[in-house]
Amino acid sequence: MSTVSSTANSQFNSVPTEKAEPRQTPSIKAMIGVCVAGACAFLNLYATQPLLPFLVQYFHTSKANASMTVSATALAVAFSAPLIGTVADRIGRKRIVVPAIFLLSVPTIVAALSSNLVELTICRFFQGFILPAVFAISMVYVTEEWDESGVGSAMATYISGNVIGGFIGRYIAGITADSFGWRWSFVALAVCTVLGGVLAWWLLPPSRVNNRTSTEPGTIWSAIPFHLTNPKLLVTFGVGSMVLFSIVAAFTYINYRLAAAPYNFSPGALSTLFSVYLVGAFITPFAGKLIDKLGFRIAYAMAISTSLLGLLLTLSPSIPVVVAGLTIFSTGIFVCQSSTTSSLRVFAPTRRSTAAGLYVCFYYLGGSLGGYLPGLFWDAGGWNYCVAIIAAAQILALVVAWFFWKPARGMDCRLLNRSAM
User: Which end of the chain is more exposed for a tag (fewer CB within 10 A), N or C?
Assistant: First the structure.
């Protein structure tokens, strides 16, 4: 790391923390709990994606405006994530995650009562404002609670939960909208959110690691500028933003392509398209082993290259080829996410809740941009232009990560790889 970041870390290490119990390998019950928490976070996040063509017609609006029901949620996540991170450093992990899941059901049910697109977008914004309390803190919970030999696998299990939750949310929204209308989609999602909160409360073990820092506000907020002066951590933030930009852009605007002639997919049919996520849910835990063995830098490069190949396949007019392309694309993206979040363990050795909050902030700024920006180019070039924008973002992220995530001179590369676990 640079001199600046090393100085920051030395100051972090001077802040007293309470002793933690020895970390252990996660139990099966705990791993399931982590998966459930991850699923609850993503259950609502992108649930409107299969509804977008329907919302365009229902509210008589543009594609870019309808897509704000995706972008507004991501934007709210970006705003609230740093705040949630600093609060968690003072209060604890599970005591934030579980109540936040229950609270998330409130704006979800209110969304069903929206009379116009603006009200629906506002409800989606409030959903996003709550979400970092679930997934940003869950990320830290995973990295702190268990022995290093299991963190890569536990993080991959958490990402798999994200994948499963993202699929279930979209599927429920689309199928329910086909049968009962879009309002009942949010009712169904609210019920699923409450049930997920109950499971997370039961399955997640209490936090054994007490990493609370000083309650001095100045001490807490000082973590933010120190993290922002760490060049390698800044690269992680930027790479993360491109990861979410890519997948939000792809899985938002592919709906418009397939809802139009000659495909004419309904919301229910579009929701089944997200079953490709399940392939990622199956493969990502194995990717955790790869990250543990090769390190996050090499794993990321392999994953982003795979994702680019899948993206290019979606240009085909054949539905089976498009589905295969989306499968390869999304699987690569999920491994990218596991690799990038694993890097936080190296580049933010202390005050990880705050670092995770900042990471999520940048990550979802990228996602918000991915939901809106391609809509400005859709009329000019349709899906082809969207693919070009996504590919450019991925190539840029690959180049930056490969050069800036290099080990410092004299550092044993194997040490960097192991520290990603």
Answer: N
Interior/surface letters 40-66, b for 16+ CB within 10 angstroms, e for the rest: bbbbbbbbbbbbbbbbbeebeeebbbb
Residue 326 lies in a domain: yes
- Taking the C-alpha atoms of residue 114 and residue 116, their distance in angstroms, rounded to an integer, is 6
The per-residue pLDDT for range 36-78, each reduced to its tens digit, is 888 988 899 899 999 999 899 999 998 889 999 999 998 998 8
| pLDDT tens track for 350-360 | 666 677 778 87
Q: How many domains does the chain have?
A: 1
Question: Can you say whether the dihedral through the CA atoms of 258, 261, 267, 272 is positive or negative?
Answer: negative
Q: What CA–CA distance (Å, rounded) separates 176 from 266?
A: 12
Give 334's pLDDT tier (boundaries 50, 70, 90): confident
- Record the tokens describing residue 359, joined without a space: 């990471």
Cβ within 8 Å of residue 384, ≥6 positions away:
315
Q: How far apart are the first and last CA of the chain?
A: 18
Q: What is the CATH number of the domain that holds 244?
A: 1.20.1250.20
DSSP result, 22-86: PPBPPPHHHHHHHHHHHHHHHHHHTTTGGGHHHHHHHHT--HHHHTHHHHHHHHHHHHHHHHHHH
- H or E element, residue 393: helix 352-404
Range of the domain at 290: 30-207+221-419
Whether residue 79 lies inside any domain: the answer is yes
CB atoms within 10 A of CB 344: 24
Q: Does the global pTM surpass 0.90?
A: no
- The residues, ordered by sequence, that sit 6+ positions from 91 with a Cβ below 8 Å of its Cβ are 212
The SS3 of residue 361 is helix
